Amino acid sequence: MPTTQIKDPVHGYVELPDALVEGVVDTRPFQRLRYVRQLSATHLVYPGANHTRFEHSLGVYHLGRTVFENLRRQSYFARDATTDELEEIQRTLECACLLHDVGHPPFSHLSEGLLDEGVLRERVAETGLVDAFDRAGVGGAPLRSANPHELLGCVIIVEEYGDALRAFDVDPFEVCAYVLGYSLAYERGEPWQYGVGAQLLHSPIDVDRLDYITRDNEMTGAGVLSFDVERMVDAYTAHPEEGLALSEKALSTIGNYLEGRIALYMWVTQHHKSVYANRLLQAMLGEYATETGESPVTVDGILDRELDDNAVLERLKAAARENPDSTLASMYDRFRGRRFPATCWKHRIALADRIGSDVAGDRDGDEGRAPALDEFTAWLTESDDRLERLLADALDVPVHEVWIDRSYVPAYDPDELEDIPIAYGGTTRSVGDWGLYGDRAFDVPIPFVFVPDGTKRRAIRVLREAFEREVGVASET
């Protein structure tokens, strides 16, 4: 079968059948992903973070194909499944890996909230996917819990790629199910290997995570990740009852994988400047809607194959120029000039120091209570809109110059990765069960407080006093 090689900076050469290149890769919806940055505005902090959903999708395809081919060589996995069945699973997996992010709106997760979910769900129902899930006995839960980009991706998969997928002898509904973490064939009673195919794309150890963790570390230059990707790829295994797992081969590298995942979240996604850059861009999208009366990101805009980061940035620039005295114009100027204020604290240690040592400690030896520092951070995030107005009034600045926020992708909190299954002796146990980390607590993201330069001390004092009034914890002065 004729193939095409694409050189990837992370995995080397990625080899695809020419038919897949013609039918999927070299099409307008997929090529749009070249202009959707993986990490939204994080390139304003890490200049190399210009990688996109396009190369990520190729990387996920490469890892998915490699892992599944390794699984097929394991006699235990191939038993009780015919060659035709395994070929069908692999074809479906490869297409799902390529197309799993095809529905991402501009700036990836940043603009998902602008997508009209009512419109999305109507479009999904029109594809017949809801009926397909019902016929397989799955019900509507996977679609109800899906992210907007996953729903939009399913619409594109069925409407744009349905004919091409069927020409590859691949069911487009099954591809959508893989994207959502299910296999309709498995739910209908086909061999357990079908379910494993879906898990490879959607589970705590899926190849989607494996690629973006590796890629984000490499492309940002953060250098916080050091683990043997090839050894981990070789460690994938599976069992009829337990599903996808990692063999004990992974024990030597799984610790670095988890630690690196946490480090990337804390020092790239949760870096205080990254948080501000992405919050600023997200706020600009909202201001655009206020100024123009229309959303800068719509379902139809993406389905028309043209809406990407560049197109939206052009809309923001035009609207800012047409409304030079607007909040949008002020924000756009700040964004283009990268005039970012410092946060009142950059990390948890500084937060404890600035708020006060008694706030950072336990309350009066009350062992049943959480540390007061955690109470302070919870208070900040639960009351962020109100406290932003309070600070703006106290500092005598516009409210849009005061922000309380943390990572724009809180769903990426790494705690869930503790459940990675390790297979040994015919059973699996989670990483936590094996005691690989003892009692170590994962780092907890903190909220940042952004205020104009020269006002940090006053802002901290205002917050401390408000916390003392409302929660009743006295701070050291």
Automatic annotation (TrEMBL):
<dbReference type="GO" id="GO:0006203">
    <property type="term" value="P:dGTP catabolic process"/>
</dbReference>
<dbReference type="InterPro" id="IPR050135">
    <property type="entry name" value="dGTPase-like"/>
</dbReference>
<dbReference type="GO" id="GO:0008832">
    <property type="term" value="F:dGTPase activity"/>
</dbReference>
<feature type="domain" description="HD/PDEase">
    <location>
        <begin position="49"/>
        <end position="222"/>
    </location>
</feature>
<dbReference type="Pfam" id="PF01966">
    <property type="entry name" value="HD"/>
</dbReference>
<dbReference type="InterPro" id="IPR003607">
    <property type="entry name" value="HD/PDEase_dom"/>
</dbReference>
<keyword id="KW-0378">Hydrolase</keyword>
<dbReference type="InterPro" id="IPR006674">
    <property type="entry name" value="HD_domain"/>
</dbReference>
<protein>
    <submittedName>
        <fullName>Metal dependent phosphohydrolase</fullName>
    </submittedName>
</protein>
